[in-house]
Design goal:
With 205 residues, the protein is of the alpha+beta class. 51% of the residues lie in helices and 15% in strands. The longest helix has 19 residues.
Length: 205
Amino acid sequence: MAVNRSSLDRHGLTSESEIIGKTDFDFHPPSMAAAYVDEDQRVMESGEPLPEQRWLVYDSVGTQRWFLSTKHPLFDRSGEVIGIAGLMRPLANSPFLHAEYSTLKLAVDWVLEHYQEKLKVPDLAKMVSLSVSQFERKFKAQFEMSPTRFIILARVNAARAILAQHAHSLGDVAQRCGFYDQSQFSRMFKRETGITPKEYRNFFR
């Protein structure tokens, strides 16, 4: 078993020994852990790699970034699948996607840095000198989601970080992360994570 330093940092660990015997359910709320385990099982059962999955996650220094995740099955000498090797790298470092990513990078970075503000898709499109339809088409091709959903996901991810570490009220978290009100926050959070903000916070207590 091997784990790189950035993965350890993201989980608040200092050495590989701390992760031995653990599962996704030890580090993530049940609904989210189940999704990660399901992805692993797909690779184990099919014996086929799962390449270039896009994930918006926090890096080791606490900044939201797009990553590409690839998982490969590991085989023993008889050809049986005995494990998985996973690789996650920044999307910006991919030689295959760099050109398209560069076109959208200014808008992507703006959302990740200003998610708490009022953001409009036409303004983001103008920022990268594209029409709204061109921007939405290129964005969906690159990130497999609409710009609107990306804005929501960036806000939900920011809320997850706050809920896991601080005791702010849900209304305060909603405001800090750019949601219209607590009701919208709770609705969007559950849509993206499968659980309510309160349930997510309770997992870390």
